[in-house]
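--- STAGE predict ---
source: upstream dedup step, 1 unique chain passed
mode: sequence only
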Amino acid sequence: MKDQTKIIAALLVGAAAGAVLGLLLAPEKGSETRDGIADFVNDLIESAKDKAQVKADEIKDFSNNVYNNAKAKVSDAFGNATGYRDQLVDIATSKSHDLAGKAKEHGQAAVDHLKSKIKHNADETNNTIQNA
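--- STAGE serialize ---
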């Protein structure tokens, strides 16, 4: 419990005890004293209910604020992660297109080189056959 709550509780208990003692020692009839004590106790109960409701409302408001802040932070983090994911997908797509283009160029160069070698070997073979 907080110190403030302890002090308030102690004051209420002290006030109640003082009021009960005052009523018991007062020169009134028994029925009037009992009615007075019942009224005082009912007032104390209502006051305690009101204070409990105020505290419950404060706790509820605090909980809602914590929940909403956490929800906003998670939403922001998710949004940021989605943005990063999209950036990474774009980068990966761009890199894969670049690599595919380079692979195609290298493949075409290799094919052209092999065609040249085959043609050169075919020409040499043809010259050898004709000269023989």
